[in-house]
Amino acid sequence: MSNPLSDDEVYERLHAAWLLFNNQEVQTPLGRDVLAIMLRQIETMQKAMIIVREDLKETPE
């Protein structure tokens, strides 16, 4: 059984995926559109993780 990823590991892997695919040339318009959507989604997920993490820090338990 594998170990669950920490929040930092999830964020780091999202960032690694973004770096891997950013500035890649794609042969077809469909491929370019899908890649652009994926990159925007990764950016959105990274921002959401930052916002939620900050909210959790500010929320008393």
Q: Can I get a quick summary?
A:
The chain has 61 residues and is mainly α. It contains 2 helices and no strands.
Can you describe what's shown?
The chain has 61 residues and is an all-alpha fold. The chain is elongated and about 50 Å long. The chain is 74% helix and 0% strand. It has helices at 7-21, 29-58. The chain contains 2 helices and no strands. The N and C termini lie far apart (31 Å).
Which terms would index this structure?
61 residues; mainly alpha; 2 helices; 0% strand
Largest sheet: none
Calculate Rg over CA atoms.
15 Å
What is the string of helix and strand elements?
Answer: HH
Q: Number of helical segments?
A: 2
Look at the structure and give the mean pLDDT. Answer: 91
Distance between the termini: 31 Å
Q: Tell me the overall shape.
A: elongated
Strand content: under 5%
Give the total of beta strands.
0
Describe the secondary-structure layout.
Elements: H1 7-21, H2 29-58
Helix pairs in contact: 1-2
